[in-house]
Design goal:
Number of helices of chain B: 3
Number of domains of chain A: 1
Structural class of chain A: mainly alpha
Order of helices and strands of chain A: HHHH
Strand content of chain B: under 5%
CATH class of chain A: Mainly Alpha
Number of domains of chain B: 1
Shape of chain B: elongated
Number of strands of chain B: 0
Structural class of chain B: mainly alpha
Shape of chain A: elongated
Order of helices and strands of chain B: HHH
Distance between the termini of chain B: 58 Å
Helix content of chain A: over 70%
Distance between the termini of chain A: 61 Å
Number of strands of chain A: 0
Largest sheet of chain B: none
Radius of gyration of chain A: 19 Å
Oligomer: heterodimer
Largest interface: A-B, 54 and 52 residues
């Protein structure tokens, strides 16, 4: 039973990771690619870690797998946020069908503040 | 643990290693042709996550759970490199 569950989780996790990599190639601009790269890969690696925890079934392995998953869940959104902010600052072009840019009004205030600080 | 269940897990582990290698290749395509620097940093971050997943599958293939420590360290290094690159893009080398 645990073998079948581990195999199912392995397959699901690698499917999600492959989907993340496929999205990173196919999606039109950086800000949409960040969706695929962050969310799908976190879920995929989390499924793989759950498969490892179920397969070994010991306390130390489960602790390590849970620690890795929690670490990825904490750091992936932070990294994506920093990267998106840096890309916006750098002036990376949006996809031409993107209509809403809610960052612009806040961005002027932020960059003025940054200029005064430096 | 029956014989068929064991071989099923081995087959699925090999299949998922192949799928993860394909994912690594897709990320490499974006790393090679990404139009801007944040694209390449994002591809590197994704490659780090994929390699952490490959380490997890490799633990199951070899039956040795010690490799998970390597995965934790690799996730940490990937996050630190992403943060460092983001700071470098935003503020340059001066601060």
């Amino acid at each position: 039973m645990t073998e079948i569950l581990a195999a199912l989780l392995l397959f699901t996790g690698s499917c999600f990771t492959l989907l993340a990599a496929f999205g990173i190639v196919r999606l039109p601009d950086l800000f949409t690619r960040l969706h695929a790269a962050t969310k799908a890969s976190t879920l995929g690696v989390g499924c793989l870690m759950a498969a490892v925890a179920i397969h070994f079934g010991s306390l130390e392995t489960t602790t390590r797998a849970v620690a890795t998953t929690i670490f990825l869940l904490l750091t992936a959104p932070v990294g994506a946020h920093l990267l998106a902010r840096a890309a916006y600052w750098m002036g990376v072009k949006f996809w031409e069908k993107t209509e809403i840019d809610e960052m612009r009004s806040h961005w002027e205030v932020y960059s003025k503040q940054a200029r005064e600080d430096s | 643990m029956t014989e068929t269940g064991n071989s099923l897990l081995e087959i699925v582990a090999m299949l998922s290693l192949g799928m993860l290698s394909l994912a690594l290749f897709f990320a490499l395509i974006r790393l090679a042709k990404g139009p801007s620097l944040p694209d390449r940093v994002m591809a590197l971050d994704l490659m780090g996550s994929i390699v952490v997943g490959m380490i997890a599958v490799y633990c199951i293939v070899t039956g040795n759970a010690e490799f998970l420590d390597t995965g934790i360290v690799l996730a940490l290094i990937g996050f630190l490199s992403t943060v460092a690159f983001a700071k470098f893009i935003e503020k340059g080398l001066s601060r």
